[in-house]
Amino acid sequence: FIEIGFNLVIVPKMLGTLTAQDTTISFLGCATQRYFFFFFGVSECFLLATEAYDCYVAICNPLHYPVIVNPWTQAKLAIASWFPGIPVATVQTTWLFNFPFCGTKVNHFFCDSPPVLRLVCADMALFEIYAIVGTILVVMIPCLLILCSYTCITAAILKIPSAKGKHKAFSTCSSHFIVVSLFYISSSLTYFHPKSHNSPESKKVLSLSYTIVTP
């Protein structure tokens, strides 16, 4: 559902722009798109960390997997992935769209923070600090949890004596590892410099990676 929601926030409007050449969006529409993009994006970060834990248990404690990751634990982990997105999306969107705007053209295929920030004609120093701190908390903390999980997974795989066994264990989490790499590398490069004027076209390509490719 997170993946579907993440796509629905971006893709329909993008397709409308490409096919019908409808490049306009209202102020409220832009703010709404921004809110749900952040909500689903933050939830995605924590969901990927939860999935990494699932891979860790499956490979490092396979015999205890049904006990550790029981249906009740699965439900709690899935629900917990949703909650961090609510305060982050609310604060980011409310704060950003209360600034005065001097421009009306968002140089992007959706209302992302960096292109919207370029339209603001006010002191953004405090918001930029908040944005960087928020990125560290939302992106890097789940990323560190994922790295810890994969460190343990790699150590467990290396202890498997047969090549067939190693391949089977690696294939269990290979798709998740690819998605994590695409998502975290591209999103980190975009949001650690929220008001950067360098290469906006490259940021569009990076945005395509974590908004459309990874889901």
From TrEMBL:
Major subcellular location class: membrane
Subcellular location: Cell membrane
Keyword Membrane belongs to the record: yes
Leader sequence segment: none
Coiled coil: none
Family annotation (Gene3D superfamilies): Rhodopsin 7-helix transmembrane proteins
Keywords per UniProt: Cell membrane, G-protein coupled receptor, Membrane, Receptor, Sensory transduction, Transducer, Transmembrane, Transmembrane helix
Membrane-crossing segments per the record: 129-158, 170-192
Claim: Ribonucleoprotein is one of the keywords in the record: no
Entries under Pfam families matching the protein: 7tm_4 (PF13853)
Domain of life, source organism: Eukaryota
GO molecular function: G protein-coupled receptor activity; olfactory receptor activity
Membrane topology, as annotated: Multi-pass membrane protein
PROSITE patterns: G_PROTEIN_RECEP_F1_2
One cellular component term from this protein's GO annotations in UniProt: plasma membrane
Residue ranges of every copy of the G-protein coupled receptors family 1 profile domain listed in the record: 1-215
PANTHER family per UniProt: OLFACTORY RECEPTOR
Protein name per its UniProtKB record: Olfactory receptor
This protein's encoding gene: KSOR12
